[in-house]
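To fix ideas, we now present one chain and its tokenised fold:
***
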Amino acid sequence: MYALIAAAGFVGLLLSPTFGCASAPSAERKPTALPEGPREFVDTALVPSSGHIIRVHDGDDLQDAIDVAQPGDTIILDAGATFKGPFTLPKKTGTGWVTIRTSTQDKQFPAPGTRVSPSHAALMPKLISWKGGGVVLADRGAHHYRFIGIEVTPSEGTYLYSLMFFGTNREQTLEELPHHIIVDRCYIHGDPKKGSRRGVALNGRHIAVIDSYVSDFKEVGGDSQAIIGWGGAGPFKISNNYLEGAGENIMFGGGDPVIKDLVPSDIEVRGNLMIKPLRWKKNEPGFEGTQWTVKNLFELKNARRIIVEGNVMEHSWEESQSGFAVIFTVRNQDGKAPWSVVEDVQFVNNIIRHSGSGINVMGHDNNRAWDQSQEAKRILIRNNLWEDIGGDRWGGRGILFQILEGTSDVRIEHNTGFQRGYALFALGPPHQRFTFRNNIAPHNEYGIYGNGVGVGYAAVDAYFPDGVVTENVLPGGDASRYPDGNVFPDSIDAVPFVDPKSGNYRLAAGIKHLKGPGVDAAALCAALSAQDAREQPICAARSAGNGQGRTIAAQ
């Protein structure tokens, strides 16, 4: 048992001999397989125009300009002008880019790599529509279009299903999918009162949304998303955006692909701020009066080879779902895609806060027979900070990690969490080759819990029989109920964080025999966008790195 000691101006924790070096996995245990990374990436580098300049002024026909533009041409729209759509991107011959951009000069507009906001709307032309499937749509095989500095929104008082609809999931082959489309520094928003179902639909190949502001996607009685993909092959890049979606801020899957065996793949989700505004939440100051259908912040139902890194995710409360911020749940959504899978996922270096629960990982589709979908496998959840998980304000059960329905090769390590309920909750058939290592989270009442069997050893033996559960710091737990190698301070207050009251959860002291448990703050902060990192207390005082200060002595 840890005891808190104050002496000579420093705080130390005494580790009893029962918590010596962490025990190694037994010889028959196979190590957890790590996920494969993306095999290809979307190249979003700016390509200089090689063709003509086509200027489109207020009152001109933008669709005509899009139709006549040739690869390499740039279409320049007057900033402040409004163009009424919908607009369709036709397939053209050649591989040069057609750029559709604001007339605002580069020196007066946010530079590449800078996230825009509504404050930049006056520098943008506006594309609107009051009918049809969206504002901007892509023909089959349309390719090499880049939007720079464009505002996209429904006509005032109009609800639309999709604002930028790149692929309809009616394409029959990979060759028919739209491809090489980039949304760069754009402001895309639903109607503030009516909402809209989705901002950008990624149902193609080589599609990116970068440095943009995507907001007010909300609906009552249906799922709404800032960004979604379900019928496209990838690769996809979602980087450095502000994203609001009531149903899911980002989702892959949720509908059966028409193309056989298609799984959205090779996906980067980096440096985004995903948030549900509190004006959507009942009983919060500023609540606007409509209870939109709220679910989660990030969800995978059919996806492979994904990196989710350096994102800040805020506000996910119990309403139309149970309050989990992040969900990985295999879904053969409509029963026609038995190849659906969630595999090779890296969820690393993120901050998740103000949520009913943390992350739910489901190994098989629990709505169908197990042979009607594939298994969730090779999932890495590493170096994430979880703050304010559970409690009356957000609802939910305050579960930090939930593992269900027989996963394989899930590895959870170097997370720091502050949850009100379970640290780890398990249910379903045993999970294969599971690792839970180097995490810091309060034990609370149940700690690591297996449904129907209990706490600690009972949960591990029943649900993780070949798993590794070691080197974790679980304040308030009972060491006698857990495998060797884990440590149990009296309370979370006994863990030597630099300044927990302000949100700086770097360790001011190391813990002997444990190799830097919890979040590596330097790695976390390096992965965040520069804008978001500046706003995080844990990214201050960079000199106080994990395990670089005093060391907790072993007695």
